[in-house]
Amino acid sequence: MKKCILGLTGSIGTGKSTVSTIFKQQRIPVVDADVGARAVVEPGTIGLKRIEKTFGSSVIAKDGTLDRKALGGIVFSDADKRQHLDRLLADLIYQWIQKEKDQYIAAGADLVVLDIPLLFEAGYDKEVDKVMVVTVTEETQLERLMKREQIKAEVAQAKIVAQLSIAEKVMRADYVIDNNGTKENTEKQVLHWLTKEGFAK
């Protein structure tokens, strides 16, 4: 049986987590970069020490954990600081993802899914065998993001344009999952891909 590392990505509001959940339900191992991003800044980690050194003790809560709200207040209105934060943690998140992936492969997994929101932006497309992109129309993306985060259209639009466009990601994908319809329709596409590629359980 061939082994495959599948990079799963999308854009904000396209429903990548829905597809990630479908893989998990099919007992396919998923390495979630967002989980890694939280793991590398837990109390006592190098990541948290780097953040404190760079942004000060005001971003550390009384219990020693990262005060995400305080850090968010510093970086989200300043693109340079946000990029600096990304660079501070990039190598730690990379190591975490590789370790998780290697553990699944060592345990005998034929398919491992790397769920990475900024897969192309962070260069992870070079680390995987194939890339699957979850897409919706721009109208649906805007609508879902506004509803999910309870934000106005202009705020949602600013978040969308901060990432590589979904059209660009679709062009660079090996496989595309259309998430405009129902969850059942999305699940059907993922199951079809698993069967076609020989990974159905």
Automatic annotation (TrEMBL):
Originating species: Pisciglobus halotolerans
Keyword ATP-binding: yes
HAMAP family noted in UniProt: Dephospho_CoA_kinase
UniProt catalytic activity: 3'-dephospho-CoA + ATP = ADP + CoA + H(+)
Function summary: Catalyzes the phosphorylation of the 3'-hydroxyl group of dephosphocoenzyme A to form coenzyme A.
GO biological process per UniProt: coenzyme A biosynthetic process
InterPro entries xref list: Depp_CoAkinase, P-loop_NTPase
NCBIfam families (alphabetical): dephospho-CoA kinase
Alphabetized UniProt keyword annotations: ATP-binding, Coenzyme A biosynthesis, Cytoplasm, Kinase, Nucleotide-binding, Transferase
Entry-linked SUPFAM superfamilies: P-loop containing nucleoside triphosphate hydrolases
EC number(s) recorded for this UniProt protein: 2.7.1.24
Metabolic or biological pathway: Cofactor biosynthesis; coenzyme A biosynthesis; CoA from (R)-pantothenate: step 5/5
Name this protein carries in UniProt: Dephospho-CoA kinase
Record has rRNA-binding as a keyword: no
Family the entry assigns: Belongs to the CoaE family.
Entry superkingdom: Bacteria
CC annotations in GO: cytoplasm
Binding locations of ATP: G13, T14, G15, K16, S17, T18
Location(s), subcellular: Cytoplasm
